[in-house]
Please model this.
Amino acid sequence: MSYTPYTLQTILTHIEEPVPGSTNSNSFFARIPIVPPNEPSNVRPSSWIQSVGAWDSDIYCGTSEGSILHYSIESTSSNRQNFKTKLESIIDLGLGKKPVERILLIPQVSKAVVLCDSILSFFSLPFFELIPASFIPPIKGVSCFTHDIGEEDKIGEDGTVEIAVVKRRNVHIYKIGESMHLKKELPLADGAITITRYGRIICLADSHIYKLIDLQIPSITLLIPTPQIPVSSKLTGTQMIPRPILTVVRKDEFLVVSGTADNHTIGIFVNAKGDAIRGTLQWSGYPKDVRVEFPYVTALLRSNVIEIHNILDQKLLQTIPVDPSLEAKGMILGHGLKIWMDVLAKKLKRDTWPDRLDAGELHSQMQREIIRYSTSSARILIYSRHSVMAQVSTPLIIQVDGLLESHNLEAALELADQAEKMISSNSDTTTERLKSELCYTFQKSGLLLLKETVFDDAFSLLSRGNMDPRVVIHLFEGLSQDKWLKETPPILLFDGVRSLIDKLGSIDQIVNDSIQQFTTQDASGSSEIKKTLQANAQEALLRYLLIERSKKKEHLGQNDVICRAIDTSLLKIYLTLKDDPSVYLLLQQKNDCCIEGSSQLLLDAEKYYALSTLYEQRHMYEKVLEIWTKIYTGELEDRDFKDGINRVKRLLLKDIHPEELPLPIVMKYIWWLTNQNAKDGVEVLTRSPRKDDMDADEILVRLEGYSNEAVRTYLEYLVLTQKSERAEYHTRLACSYVKDVETIIKDKNELQSMNDLVDDFKYHVACKQTRITTTEQTEGHTDEHTFVEYLGNIPNQTHLIRMRLLLIRLLQRSTLYSPQELLKTISRAGPLLIEEVIVYGRMNNHKEALGILIHALNDFVGAEIYCITNGQSIGDSPTPKGNINQVMPRSSSLSNQKVQKPFPPIIQENEENLSTEQLSQRQQLFTMLFDSFLSIKDRDKMMVRIMHLLNTQGIYLDIIKVLQSIPDHWPIHLLEQFLTRSMRRTLDVYNESKIVVGLARGENLMRHGPFI
Model:
């Protein structure tokens, strides 16, 4: 069975005209009905319909006698065989008995344009009153005209529309609104017989050839010759050359008709460039007229047949015979007559399922939808000498529903497939209605197949029919939840589909009914068949739900009620099938599984890790951490959960909104993690996005219960990374380092190795001492190192050395710790001599510090640096080599972070930049150092150190004290450099002071001169 898109219905069976002299030309009273609608009228046999215009419920018929008959349609129900019409008025054009060639209605500006006797006249709608010539004058000498079909039902920004008017040698483009003016004029040498337009392209034909005119360039493109072979007329029996036929298909596409000598006629589709596109249409004879209502081409043939072709594949879809006695003359494509279809209204009626008491507004909306879908627009009208017929769209649902009722499912689906291919890309009421009809067809067909237990095909059709998946899920006992049916948006079903669902019942009932029809005795066989059918139904449902889920992918994760029903049902099916990979795939991506129902399903199936995945996808992180920690500790068992500690740590390190994971919950599970491994816990404490909100004091108190390494690591974060200026943290960090050193000394008996380090450094200094020449002594050139540099340059540093270097660097660079408290801690830890020196320097106990440097360590270079930095430093602190955190029980990403320098390096200020107090302190320190050097028992060593000091830092020493203190037996040439520099400096100071005094006196004299 083929899909038939149209039916033909008669609108007017005859026309009525007044007796001569009963009307006045263009008078308002002339348009009042002369003859009551239900009484016979005087019919003039010589008058017939020559042209037709239609809009809404009004029809305007142009007659061969130069008048226009205005009819209104009183009943527009498509159930009636004929329409009931009423003659509203008769308009005499006043141009004599000339045929009305064309009527063009332009409702967007309430105008009608009539061509009669080569004159264009303009009327107002809907009463067809002649517009005075002072506003819009008639246009004479017109051969044909057209409006812009691309602007149909639209209006320009200036409130006008355009028409193209062809005269003998020109094309004029007029703009019509409240008035009319000429926009453009183009030459046209051969004139035109017929014309149409879409946008910038005009398609026309003269007596020889079809043409395209581009109004923007402008340019003319020649197409194909117009028909030149005469055809016979059944009315007159004469041979006549047929009129060229052309029409708009859509934007930049036209259809032109060509006749051949063998009476074979083709329609050619051309684009805006004049190139042939698509295939060709073929007719058995030259048509009287052709009209396009995309995607269909309607042709009125001379054999009293209407043929309808599909533009997309150029195939003949339908043939409609026309009563030969009607003598059909032509067709028009207008704005359309509004026709109400009762059958369509009943079939497409939808209502809520189940019934809802709060759906008043929704019912009103559905009623408006029915009115819109059931009010069809018949755009193509066929007119004969005395009648007018409408080509009305045939509702698909009427054709298909009859086939379904007769159980001819295959033919119904074939018809629906054909109609589906005809759907236009245009979003108009006709297209929307056809989609709704297809939904009805596929839904009802699917339910009928479901009754036959053909599950795959049934669910496929239900999907094509866009049935709400909640309805399908409701058919499966154990899957559906009643609340889904009551949630918004409500379920809407066609009445015919709803009644069928109520009859079918559940899938189990459908299976039982099917088994009872085919088996009656073998109970065991029936049980197996039942299981097989139920399994088939479940597999088909699974595929159906996945298809529906793909349709809703843009709504996933937005708590859409339909997505929630689909995903929850999928999860239950996967759990039933024990398809673990599919369970995790569903839960790890965006989903809308119902939390309450899904969590219970997963708990019952002991899929704890899958449940945590669902919670994580929904940002329910507290529940995620609760499940993970319980699985890790063995309280819950789930082998799918792997790498537990790291999973917990990564989650705690995520930047999660406080509302989704409050700080108390974060801290709860950080301490749980710390209990499992202190290293990981401290890493989270120092790297968490919420670290600034944490109470550092409370954390330090709790970390005391774990290990000194944990406390030290967190203090390093506070002091080195966060740059905290709290003295308590600096003191505690330094004490933590000392405690680590003390622990290493006691646990590994490192006391002797520490003494060995001092002895080795002294030996190193002594060896350097023996290689220093007299000249180097005099000039102060040595390559000696401080004790701190010595520690840093040891190739294979032990953990003890690395910890000491960290302590030394902190002590030198920080000024915020408490030196008194730290000195007590250092004294208890062991022989940490260099550390004591730094602390003594902070306490201004310089004598004790210098004593340790010189006599205990022989760190002469460090002593000089100590003095020149006013006790701030004993030399640069090298970065420890290797992993300073190797004592921690587990590796951590925190240990890979490079230790930052929290304080600027020590800067030795020049004398000019020092304050008087700082300079005085530095002089005192170097004097103390000089005295310490004098107390060295080894005379050679004493001489070397003193001479080095005098030659490098003699500027800070008093020359008189030096000369009084050094032994008398020292050769004077050793003191030459020191004495020369000192005398020169003393002389410079003296001369500079005299200059300053002179300048001061001169300035004083200049200022007081005027007063003398």
Notes: Confidence is low (pLDDT under 50) at residues 19-44, 885-909.
